[in-house]
Amino acid sequence: xxxxxxxxxxxxxxxxxxxxTPGQVVxxxxxxxxxxxxxxxxxxxxxxxxxxxxxxxxxxxxxRPDAPVLCGIPIAIKDIFTTxxxxxxxxxxxxxxxxxxxxxxxxxxxxxAGAIILGKTNMDEFAxxxxxxxxxxxxxxxxxxxxxxxxxxxxxSASAVAxxxxxxxxxxxTGGSIRQxxxxxxxxxxxxxxxxxSRYGMIAFASSLDQGGTxxxxxxxxxxxxxxxxxxDPLDSTSADMPVxxxxxxxxxxxxxxxxxxxxxxxxGMDADVQASIQGAIETVKELGARIVDISLPHTRYxxxxxxxxxxxxxxxxxARYDGVKYGSRSGPAQDLNNMYKDTRAKGFGREVRRRIMxxxxxxxxxxxxxxxxxAQRARRLIQQDFDTAFGQCDVILAPTSPSPAFKLGxxxxxxxxxxxxxxxxxxxxxxxxxGVSIPCGFTKEGLPMGMQIIGRQFDEKTxxxxxxxxxxxxxxHTRTPAI
Amino acid sequence: MEYxxxxxxxxxxxxxxxxxxxxxxxTTFAREPNINVCPVCIGMPGVLPVxxxxxxxxxxxxxxxxxxxxxxxxxxxxxxxxxxDLPKGYQISQYELPVNRxxxxxxxxxGADRDIRLxxxxxxxxAGKLMHNQDGTSYVDFNRSGIPLLEIVSEPDLSTxxxxxxxxxxxxxxxxxLGVCDGNMEEGSLRxxxxxxxxxxxxxxxxxxxxxxxxxxxxFIHKALDYEIQRQxxxxxxxxxxxxxxxxxxxxxxxxxxxxxKEEAHDYRYFPEPDLLTLEVSDDLLEEARRGVPELPDAxxxxxxxxxxxxAYDAEVLTASRDLAGYFETVVGxxxxxxxxxxxxxxxxxxxxxxxDTEVKDFRVTPDRTAKLLGLIDDGTISGKIAKGVYEQMVxxxxxxxxxxxxxxxxxxxxxxxxxxxxxxxxEQNRKEVGQYKAGKEKLFGFFVGQVMKAxxxxxNPSVVNDLLKKMLREEKT
Lengths: 484, 478
Fold this sequence. Notes:
Chain A is an alpha/beta fold. In chain A, 37% of the residues lie in helices and 12% in strands. Chain A has helices at 8-16, 22-40, 48-62, 105-112, 155-162, 179-185, 219-229, 272-287, 303-318, 337-348, 351-364, 370-390, 416-420, 427-432, 461-474; strands spanning 43-45, 74-78, 116-121, 168-172, 188-191, 212-216, 258-262, 291-295, 396-400, 436-443, 449-455. Chain A is globular and about 65 Å long. In chain B, strands 1, 2, 6, 7, 8, 11, 12, 13, 14 and 15 form a 10-stranded mixed sheet that branches. By secondary structure, chain B is of the alpha+beta class. In chain B, α5 crosses α6 (312-318) and α7 (322-334) crosses α9 (367-378).
């Protein structure tokens, strides 16, 4: 195993035994990025000087007994998190040259834990997309099959981790943006409970749904990263004041697990390979001692509609600040203020972002609010209640992450509705604020990875990670790497 | 046909908290633009608001002062519109569930009492300020962005500009008593928009209203309301219709002019602010607010009439500011003749305060010195008239009254023997007048008093002079 294939756990071991240094690891990863990034375009920004400055600090700190837990571990950051002094674009032209004067809280926490920020990864513009094709800087590709998408919106992070350009990355998940690309790239993607991780410095798409999380090649690594980034943040009023557990040390085999399988998640026209892989996973967990419970989440069919109303409404407001006045790009001289706004926003935002701003603006308009936003809020509560009821019968829920494996670039780009349905299984969790982890559970005949998600009760990351870890121990899907 | 006006006021009061509504930036005056700013109050990507608890305490204090109904749970909402001084493209405000509903503000006008009902009080953040250059470029100053405001909305209970001003002055007094707002209208810490309509007298239905903006003093508000009521009355009088619109007061022309029509009005697309939790007002917070509410002007005025036997008018004047009322009570504490103190404050002290344009708290003559001066009048050391001169000296020099009296030799002459020595030569030199007086021309008495005062430079004790003069004139031979 080369240094680039080593996970976070292995790197920590290597550092501890002094069999590798952060400098050697970074050298290897940067070589890999130089080689692969032109084809995969997983990274938007990699600043070698900044990276080696961090390497120098990490190497000094590693020798000390109080070296922090992630000391010298390279991590990639989705370009939606602000990073002091490092360009943060949200994959949008409008922020093409935006250099924030502040770190996102979870970036600050990673740095405090000793991690090396390796670079900023590509994404759908403002996280609006399920394929990383809406990036203003060009699409990211799937390392398993470069003419396929990596999923999205955290497709850059997923592709980078899957292609072993970095052992772990941060992503964000508003409707599936961590879990779906994790599934499509064959890695582990964890979306924590809403409020578990601070949103400060995470550029807002839909504030009531957005949640930062981890993307790694093992459940253990995700647990370790979650420990580092989770917790209450006085700068985020919606972050939860709940104790953070040492997840990586609690990955014990759960006892007497009742596993709910929602019948609504096995829809007509679902990809046969995906269906088969989930059936296989169900068999595996049965063998591992889990009891399968047939559950119903009856309002699932409203989730996509509810999501696109609420997320777009919030987005239309969250993105109003990009007006060309204070920072970001501004179109050239305009006749008057209104034209300055119009030109700036028409040129600065891509098509999908403009579509969602208009959708959200409409849904919030006088005369339409009650019929759209108001109704969607009520439906959201019904979806939450579905989960509450289901968790009376089971401890975790097992479901497919995505209805299909990675699709070809361009296949859905011109059909927004088809694209929106890519998130049909992931969206309900965001609406309910629940934690979910997607882990590899098989490969298609073509050799594309597929994932399943384990969904837990609010703030019960411990149980879903333990369950996922148990499954991972019993299977080998996670050990495969793309032959790129 | 006779018309009557219906007026409702929306007041924005800037709160005097140390820091802004949702970040840690100072709210204090800044010499340069964009000094008191941070990523939060200039709306940079990814930042989040965190509510300043004191803003809620202040809001609850006002709610208690106007006897409103505090919502134990209220919700922040985003008010969406584009303007360069609004960094996020939305203002965090409250919409469906404000922190306070209802309440009353009591006003007195021409001897009549009225309770003006409030609709609501809600919390919101201020916007920045635009600065326009001569060359056509504009700049934005975000120092003000995020400073907390309370929006206080009245019911349309006001019917004249005088009532509107009485309401505003009372509201301002309450805010000043609470110490939550500095009440400065010129500097914009207290701003007022007015909704005005007119209707035929006796008609129950409201007429079409216009909203007036850009009035930054009581005087302008009065003028703008006068003008707008007259304008609407004239339009309706000649059979025209009023269009619902926003109008700006233009001081230079003394008129209001249309700023935007109803069709051009913004659709603010309010929705609950997802970055903030429901605002829950705890018992602790209510208790803290309760402790912050002092005796309010109405209660104080009531006490002043009951406890000090002051006329209602005096009580109202003295309680118009918390500092003045406190001043009065301190003086009375060492000189227990409340009406004399009230007279002195209203006729002398307030005149100086106005003339030298100062505040009660900064006034050079302390309550203690005022009490001393009034005591010197009372014990006959100086006359009331001399005291006024001494007071003027106290204001200008800052000296103690007794020191000044000594320095200027102003002690009152009250001894009969001394005054006899003054009066005798006066009577001697004015034989003719003495004769006339004794012949029955009694109004000449005043002439003799005047001569005595002249001779003593006003220091003679008037009542002693009166008695003595009468006696000595009686003793005079014809």
